[in-house]
Structure formats: C-alpha cells, structure tokens
Amino acid sequence: MSTLIANGTIVTADLTYKADVLIEDGQIIGIGHGLKGDTVLDATGCYVMPGGIDPHTHLEMPFMGTYSADDFDSGTRAALAGGTTMVVDFALPSPGQGLLDALQMWDNKSTRAHCDYSFHMAVTWWGEQVFDEMKAVTERGINTFKHFMAYKGALMVNDDELFASFRRCADLGAIPMVHAENGDVVAELSARLLAEGNTGPEAHAYSRPPQVEGEATNRAIMIADMAGVPLYVVHTSCEDSHEAIRRARMAGKRVWGEPLIQHLTLDEGEYFNADWDHAARRVMSPPFRDKRHQDSLWAGLSSGSLSVVATDHCAFTTAQKRFGVGNFTQIPNGTGGLEDRLPMLWTAGVNTGRITMNEFVAVTSTNIAKILNIYPRKGAVLVGADADLVVWDPAAEKVITAASQQSAIDYNVFEGKTVKGLPRFTLSRGHVAVTEGRMSSAEGHGKFVARPPKGPVSQALSAWKELTAPRPVQRSGIPASGV
Ligand code: DUC
Ligand code: ZN
Ligand code: ZN
Ligand code: ZN
User: Fold this and answer.
1) Residue 457 per-residue DSSP state
2) 482 falls in which pLDDT band (50, 70, 90)?
C-alpha cells in the first residue's frame, strides 16, 4: 500500500520546490510529478517538511520527589499533534545507579511511544562502572552524554567528573551535553532568598540569574576544549550563554546551542504580578528571561550561532507544582511544549520574518539530525529517508488551550495564544498519525532509533593536543636539600 502526498510544496533546510512525495513501507520512494499512490493526501496550499525532531524531553522521569506527568504515550501523542515525529529523551540514572540499568527502565517505558524516539544518557555520578558502561551505551546506539552542572546534592557533577567524562566521550566518538548553570551559586542564592523570606515562585528566577548560566557555559566550553571534544549546550536561555557559544564557534570549536521555544516566546513577566499557580507552572531551569535575552536568542537562530529549537518538555500538574508552596526550591522544575513547539515557532518566527521557512526546518529537524548522526534517515525529504513528514498548512489557525491538548497536565504555558500554521497531516514512518488535529496514531508504533557514534572528530583546534604533547623537563638545578 503506497501513499502519495500530492500538490504540496516541499520545504527542506535548503530548498523550496513543488513536487509530490510517494511513500511505501514507511519510507519515501519517490519525489516528483506524475507519481501514483494507493492513497492520496491532498497537500494543496501546504508545505511538506521533515517532521520535527525534539532532542530534549523528559517523559515519566523521576525528578524532585515525583515523576514528570507526560509519559511515552501522552508525550509522543503531543509531539505528533504538533508535527514532531521524533523525540530524544534523557535516560537518567539516579546517582549510584548503573547506566545500563537506567537504560533498561527507559526501554520499558518507551514501548508505548507513538512516534520514533531515541535516548541521551545522563552521567549523574562518576566511577569505574560509569566509565565502563559508557562504551556499552554507545554500542546500544546512544552517542550523547548529558551532564548537570546544577542540582547540587542530586544530579550535579563537579569539574573533575566533567573532565573525565568528556575525555571518555572523546575516546568513544560521542558528544557530551551540558545543563549549564553554576550549581554552587544557585544553592547559595536559594538559601539566602529563603532566609530572607522570599519563598514564592518568583524567587526561583532570582536564584538563577543569567550570569549563573553564562559562567557555567564558559566553563563547560573550556573543559570540552581541554578534553578535545565537541559540546552541545542544552536550553541556552540568555545572551551570557549565547555569547560564550558564539565566541567558541568563531574560534573554530564545534559547540552547539539549543534555545527552547518557551524562552523564545515567554518572558520573566510570567513570574511577577501573577498568582502563585501561574508563576509556579512556569518554574523551570533556566527560568524565563527578559526581552534583551529573547532578542539575543532570535538573533542566534537567524545568524546560525544557535542551532536547534527544543522544548525540554518536562510537564508537571498544578498539584505537583504545589509541593513547593512555602518553599520555591521544592517546586518541580519543568514546563511542557511538545505539542506547541512548531506552531509557536512558525507563528513567532516565520510569520514575523524573523526566520525563513528553510531556517525553520533546519532548527526544528535537520540540524539536530546531523548533530545526532541520524541524517538523512531523519530530518530530510529524500528518497530512502523515513517518511516522518508534516504537511503544514500555513493558513490554519487555532487558540492554544489545555482543554484541547494531548499532554496529561491541567494547564498550558501558552494558554490563549493564537497560532497560525498547523499540521494538516503528520506522518510517522508513513503512518498517518494526525489529520487536522484528529489523532489516528498508534501506541507502540514508535521504534528506537540507534545513533552510531560519530567517531573521534579532528582535535586540531582543541587544546587537548597541546596539553598532551611531550614537554621539556628540567633536568638540572634540583636543590640538594632544603631551600
Ligand atoms: N530543567 C527543568 O526545568 N526541568 C527538567 C530538568 C531541567 O534541567
Ligand atoms: Zn536541564
Ligand atoms: Zn532537560
Ligand atoms: Zn503504523
């Protein structure tokens, strides 16, 4: 049984042209004119684009005394409803837990996925077991390792551990990722704020100023440089962090930055002059910033210094957020966004002229497919690629509401916003999963996508070569005794 997407305009990261797309057995088998299919999907007036890839989700993750509320069922339904056809979730060992043990937990949860998925592995502690298991993890098709520089006393790793793990990544041809915030400073500021009686959700933002992120991003970049390895910085939210990434890239380093759709479109005003629930529902790390930082992120997308737009989808219900009444440090950190990433970015980016359609495809799909080493199977409209596609109707509009979303939580941080530009159809490996908002996705249809290591990248521009070069040793002049 073949499917033809007819009368649409194909938009990829570098081309825009009119052609039909023929699909069979989950793959694109033809692109052109005069093709025939058993089923025809009408794409008149629409753009046919690679489905979105969200490289940053936390589904059913044990975190801050609870579990994030969207699992691989509701989370991947939300993804497909919004035109995203693949998610990459973080397998998160609790400190002391083996990586393979954590991976087994994620394997079990992900059997419910409606769209294809992959994992990053988090390194939340350091030891011989972690060192050894990192190799086995790459052999399972996971080529990215995430490190938390914040969440002191829980997930945070120190600089010696970062350096050791980055070195291991270099040996394995894997890419380290960082949540870049200075966890020591956050802990200090949080304690001080609480002692002064600042217990509400707005204090969460005070405890994590942009400098905390800028410092950690700079530090991670330098450590990666000394380890001779590329670096992926998750949820880049501010100019301080973006500036470090820009500088590294201009110096020839492979460093990628990932702003979130939330930071691009929502600002710190959400925490102030708002009731407790409204503010707490938007507590995430890093927090929302002011307009100057938002402008910096948009400039990064159009200039290419920032590479990927993600969500960090980590949704908690209002009841879960209320664990932090009286103490903002107990509010589970995280917001949703999986269903809204593409429509919000199209509305705030393409419709305003801040980014082009081709840049939209690059930052929502193609760039990350290349970074994660799954291009052109994913992130492309090419013969032989998986038919993970979105047929995008630029004229379709809706108002975002929690009442109509796939996510399991009871609110939406974009509630009331009008978006223009929505999927007419979303296809997961050729299977029509969404038609104008009506779901026909299938639980368990999603398959794990293995991502082979990239192999060691050239270290010509890193400090590692110099640091490990033979050094002259002083052979004389050792004092006989004393001084
Ligand atoms: N930030 C969040 O807001 N939630 C999950 C983890 C993180 O780093
Ligand atoms: Zn993070
Ligand atoms: Zn995250
Ligand atoms: Zn199917």
Assistant:
1) P
2) low
Backbone CA torsion sign across 411, 415, 421, 424: positive
Digit-coded pLDDT (tens) for 358-409 = 999 999 999 999 999 999 999 999 999 999 999 999 999 999 999 999 999 9
pLDDT band at 483 (very low <50, low <70, confident <90, very high): low
Is pLDDT at 14 greater than 90 in this prediction?
yes
| 6 part of a folded domain | no
For the CA of 58, the nearest atom of ligand 1: 5
- Beta carbons of 260 and 287 less than 8 angstroms apart: no
Give the domain range for residue 317: 51-380+395-419
Query: Tokens representing 32?
Result: 């052109």
Of 384, 373, 303, 350, which Cα lies nearest the Cα of 23?
384
What tokens does 320 get?
């879960």
Ligand 1 test: best mutation among 281, 284, 311, most atoms within 8 Å of CB? 284
Is 370 within 8 Å of 53 (Cβ atoms)?
A: no
Shortest-distance Cα residue to atom 1 of ligand 1: 285
Contact 82, 343 (CB under 8 A): yes
N-to-C CA span, the chain:
87
238 within a domain of the structure (yes/no): yes
Q: What confidence score (pLDDT) does residue 472 get?
A: 86
Q: What is the pLDDT of residues 30-47, one digit of tens each?
A: 999 999 999 999 999 999
For residue 432, being part of any structural domain is answered with no
Distance of alpha carbon 172 from alpha carbon 157, whole angstroms? 20
Mean pLDDT of 120-133: 98
Nearest-angstrom CA–CA distance, 371 and 350:
23
Residue 178: pLDDT above 60? yes
Is 33 within the bounds of a domain? no
Alpha carbons 269 and 278: distance in angstroms, whole number: 11
In the chain, the amino acid numbered 21 is V
Q: What percent of the chain has pLDDT over 90?
A: 94
How many domains, in total, are found in the chain? Answer: 1
Torsion over CA: 222, 223, 225, 231 (sign): negative
Q: pTM of the predicted model, to two decimals?
A: 0.97
Task: Identify the CATH number of the domain in which residue 316 sits.
Answer: 3.20.20.140
Q: How far is the CA of 116 from the centre of ligand 1 (A)?
A: 22
> Which value does ipTM take for this structure?
0.92
CA-to-CA dists, residue 450 to 108, 133, 367, 420, angstroms: 16, 17, 17, 34
Taking the centre of ligand 4 as the mean of its atom positions, its distance from the CA of residue 431, in whole angstroms, is 5
Element (H, E) at 168: helix 159-172
Query: Are the C-beta atoms of residues 82 and 340 closer than 8 Å to each other?
Result: yes
Pocket lined around ligand 1, Cβ cut-off 6 Å: 58, 179, 284-285, 312, 314, 333-334
